[in-house]
Design brief:
This protein is α/β, with parallel strands linked by helices and 388 residues long. The protein has 14 helices and 13 strands. It has two domains: 140 residues, Aspartate Aminotransferase, domain 1; 238 residues, Type I PLP-dependent aspartate aminotransferase-like (Major domain) (Aspartate Aminotransferase, domain 2, 3-Layer(aba) Sandwich), CATH 3.40.640. Helix 3 runs antiparallel to helix 11, helix 4 packs parallel to helix 11 and helix 12 runs parallel beside helix 14. The longest helix is centred in the C-terminal third of the chain and has 24 residues. The structure holds pyridoxal-5'-phosphate. Belongs to the class-I pyridoxal-phosphate-dependent aminotransferase family.
Length: 388
């Protein structure tokens, strides 16, 4: 038997990869499972983007390997997007690197900076990829607490009092997934200041700033590009392009050069048609985002009803693609509630525990289904009523 590498032994198969298998089995048995688990936008991307992709795909000369750094026009488009919506000035030649989704950026940053045993501050609850990438790169995860009573913002004073020796990276993500909490400009300043004081590389993961959020903020909106700050961004949610895999990392030129070493030894550039489509997507006017948000607002009203039907408490002030709700005390095991919802109602929602122990008493419901589907989910849940 060939044994799996040690670096993977502490990392489990991604929760959704397992659960989607279970859902597929149920569907194969004839059930029609309403999947409100995953945040994969269901709406169409900008037409202009699709057209640019298909035009390029029809040109024989545009199917070759591409530059590891992406075409300059794409880097410029990212910079124009940052200037227009975040009021941040970035240099397209030195401060931006297109990525195939921001998730791969989490891995590249970890591989670029972590030595065996380096510590990484990871939010609990938070996106599971931060911890997984840390472990795979040989780092040690140091969770920091996010609590509802602090509106899911870290207690930086308490953190400062801990021994931070050996901490190299801190992951932050606002608007925060899974809780939908937003950080103010002043709070972003606090994070940047904390990281600088402690010699930590602050990595801000920012894929949700355009979804149900009135003021998109970049970590660079607060103090400009600094040597100890990186930001990941993505077109997956903002432009309904999750399957295309387009994202970026921005930061100090030295970091971009370093991350390129990790990246260029793994992939061989992004398909030109996708880059051309992404440029068109990034050029969309503000009405594009308003249109999306109008639809998400309508959907969210139904998800709020689902939360109420399940007697979950939740904030109406959440940004991003999900509604995060606290399960009532009488429910002993959230995993049982989630399984009852799946097997009895045919509705899949995500249990909060997959995001860390501080998510144990919560569930997360996605807004990536149309209102009809959400209403069906609501009706199924209502029908089951007290059986849940
Ligand atoms: C917080 C967070 N970061 C990053 C990602 C990954 O986005 P991308 O599709 O750009 O890899 C997700 C996707 O669900 C996410 O929730």
């Amino acid at each position: 038997m060939i044994i799996i590498a040690k670096r993977l032994q502490s990392v489990q198969e991604y929760y959704f990869s397992k659960k989607l298998g279970e859902i597929a089995l149920l569907n194969a048995e004839g059930r029609d499972i309403i999947n409100l688990g995953i945040g994969s936008p269901d709406m169409a991307p900008p037409q202009q983007a699709v057209k640019a992709l298909s035009t390029s795909a029809n040109k024989a000369a545009e199917h070759g390997y591409q530059s590891y750094k992406g075409v300059r026009e794409l880097r410029q488009a990212f910079c124009d997007w940052y200037a227009a919506y975040y009021n941040v000035s970035l240099n397209p030649d030195t401060e931006v690197l297109p990525l195939m989704g921001s998730k791969e950026g989490i891995t590249y940053i970890s591989n670029t900076y972590l030595n065996e045993g380096d510590k990484v501050l990871v939010p609990n609850p938070g996106y599971p990829a931060y911890a997984a990438a840390t472990k795979i790169a040989g780092g040690v995860v140091r969770e920091y607490d996010l609590k509802e009573e602090n509106n899911w913002f870290p207690d930086l004073k308490a953190l400062q009092e801990q021994d931070l020796t050996g901490v190299k990276i801190m992951w932050v993500n606002y608007p925060h997934m899974p809780t939908g909490a937003q950080a103010s400009r002043a709070q972003l300043v606090e994070l940047v200041t904390f990281a600088e004081r402690n010699g930590i590389l602050l990595c801000h993961d920012n894929p949700y700033s355009f979804i149900l959020n009135n003021t998109p903020l970049s970590i660079f909106s607060v103090m400009g590009v600094a040597e100890h700050v990186l930001e990941l961004n993505s077109l997956s949610k903002s432009h309904n392009l999750a399957g295309w895999r387009v994202g970026m990392v921005a930061g100090h030129p030295k970091h971009i050069e370093n991350i390129l070493i990790a990246k260029s030894n793994v992939d061989s550039g992004m398909f030109l048609g996708i880059q051309k489509g992404a440029i068109k997507a990034l050029e969309m006017p503000s009405g594009w985002y308003e249109g999306l948000n109008e639809i998400y607002r309508e959907r969210r009203k139904i998800v709020w009803q689902i939360m109420e039907e399940l007697k979950c408490s939740y904030s109406r002030n959440q940004a991003g693609l999900f509604v995060w709700g606290k399960v009532r005390d009488e429910v002993e095991e959230v995993s049982c509630l989630v399984n009852d919802l799946l097997y009895k109602a045919g509705v899949f929602v995500t249990p909060g525990f997959i995001f860390g122990t501080n998510g144990n008493r919560y569930i997360r419901v996605s807004l990536c289904s149309d209102t009809e589907r959400l209403k069906s989910a609501l009706n199924r849940i209502k029908t089951l009523g007290t059986k849940l």
